């Protein structure tokens, strides 16, 4: 029975146990159930209470499970629900920009219902002709990451040679398609035959290879890029970066989005070939998507028509149910997901 002061309901949550050295395991998280009142408290100015629909599993979340200081994002709090990006429906709001029934994407909790007080991270969803889950993928942070990292950092030109690692993931699959639409030659690496087939047959890459089958990455890159690489979109780091640097062309650009091969290591691997940056005048730049949020409207104007015309496709790997979220997140680091890893909490 709902009254003016809000119904109290049970709220399933994924709790982060404690800081994790080494490899992330499912047991570093656990499921619990608490209760929540479906009303924003009086003293919570600008608060928004939401029902979470889709949650995003992203590699950067692993780094929030360490006890660090001074990064661009704070560590997770042991004993509290995991936080990350999600798509949600507004149930109650004290914020002028959001009203009951609106759909939003932004930072939320890994739980069925969340009270969001840091509303500056939220975006209102206007276009609902596409799957809502896209707002934590192609129409959200990964999409804007691909857009900014490729166009803003790499200044690509038609006919250039583009290499993308972790190419079937949330970001890589889009960078490859953007590069093809621009008229570039595109090769991607991934970790299984299925992913390689996806890159070539679904995403339209010119070629792709399984890095696990290559004994010598330098030789592999020379095979796929006999004339060298103009643009490398870096998602993995380690040995792959070392081999790429040897194969970059003069005035090549490397956009450093992430280094997923390093996140579970106690001691990061060294990169030995960086001296090649000098004679080749290579521009290598790391970036954070937060710096490009002002481009989000411009990005949507570009990408929505492409999606609706079928010129860009997006593959999601959807885990059903909050109880499967820990397995979905740990699976990212074993390469279990094919495409963007999403957890469906509720389909409305």
Describe the protein's architecture and organization.
InterPro entries: ADH_N_2, GroES-like_sf, MDR_fam. GO terms for molecular function: oxidoreductase activity, acting on the CH-CH group of donors, NAD or NADP as acceptor. The protein is α/β, with parallel strands linked by helices. It contains 8 helices and 15 strands. Strands 3, 4, 5, 6, 7, 14 and 15 form a 7-stranded mixed beta sheet that branches. Strands 10-9-8-11-12-13 form a 6-stranded parallel beta sheet, sandwiched between helices. The protein has a two-stranded antiparallel ribbon with strand order 1-2. Helix 8 links the parallel strand 14 (316-320) and strand 15.
Topology:
Blueprint: E1 8-16, E2 29-37, E3 48-56, H1 60-63, E4 83-93, E5 103-109, E6 113-116, E7 123-124, H2 141-154, E8 161-164, H3 172-182, E9 185-190, H4 193-201, E10 207-210, H5 217-224, E11 229-234, H6 238-247, E12 248-256, E13 283-286, H7 296-308, E14 316-320, H8 325-331, E15 340-344
Parallel strand pairs: 8-9, 8-11, 9-10, 11-12, 12-13, 14-15
Antiparallel strand pairs: 1-2, 3-4, 3-6, 3-15, 4-5, 5-7
